Amino acid sequence: METAGYIAAALIGLSLGLMGGGGSILTVPVLVYFFRMQPLYATSYSLFIVGFTSLTGALKNYMHGLVNIRTALIFGISSFITVFATRRWVVPAIPKVIVETATYAVTSDMLTMVLFAVLMVAAAFSMLKHRKIKQHKNTDNTTLHVLHLLWYGLAIGFVTGLLGAGGGFLLIPILVTSLKLPMKEAVGTSLLIIAINSLIGFAGDIGNLSIEWRKLLTITAIAVAGILAGAALSRRIEAGRLKKAFGWFVLLTGIFIIVKEILILRGA
Predict the structure, then answer these.
(1) What is the pTM of this model?
(2) Domain segments of the chain: what residues?
(3) Which of 6, 62, 107, 147 lies 20 to 30 angstroms, CA to CA, from 96?
């Protein structure tokens, strides 16, 4: 089963390289269902894997002048702190059994997977919509924009810390509409934010969880290799159609997880 997991890690990296994002949303399901990890460990490992794969993409974009460092730091004031605090104190404080009756029990593992599946469904719809994000005229209200970024940073930092997902499909519209970044620059900047968020979130787990570094580094290396291969192939493959097909796959996977966890609940 782990062999299939390593292949899936390569495919996640490949999809990131081909489409510039989206593939990391499958990291947690791959770790849970192929590597048989508990969701708590899967979200932690996902933060490390997503962090390094996103950093690879961010560095590539930075070399082409497509990363706005100032914006990443403004956004990060709140998101970096929130994701660390969430992993360090909030996640360990969540009880193993959240609700229990004579007929069923809602565990933290089950709730994590359901919430993650909901995030997958939202990400899938974002991929399938192909909606063009409009940039509005700059109002020069810098204070308002900074306050918006701080608020969004809190929200996305919490989601990243709780579920181990980068949230690029949430970040990009915010960067385009609130800070008026061009789309390509928004993508590069979001990759840097995701990388820093994820790696800081993982740092919050050090001391709380026992990390199997050899396995983690192997999965990460395979995913990064997939990104580099995908980037090389991206010039030959039409990303639009691929993204739509991948969106349907993510949607079906999210629905499968929700149904699976509900069936487990009923069987409890």
Answers:
(1) 0.88
(2) 2-267
(3) 6
| DSSP 8-state symbol, 96 | S
pLDDT tens-digit series, residues 72-102: 888 878 888 999 999 999 999 999 999 888 7
Question: SS3 for 205?
Answer: coil
State how far the Cα of 37 lies from the Cα of 54, in Å rounded to an integer: 22
Residues 6+ apart with CB under 8 A from 48: 198, 199, 202, 216, 220
Tokens describing residue 173: 């519209």
- In angstroms, the first-to-last Cα distance of the chain is 25
Q: What is the DSSP letter of 139?
A: -
Tens of pLDDT, residue by residue over 134-166, are: 555 544 445 546 777 788 889 889 999 999 887
The stretches of 64-182 forming alpha helices (DSSP H) are 69-85, 91-93, 108-129, 142-163, 168-179
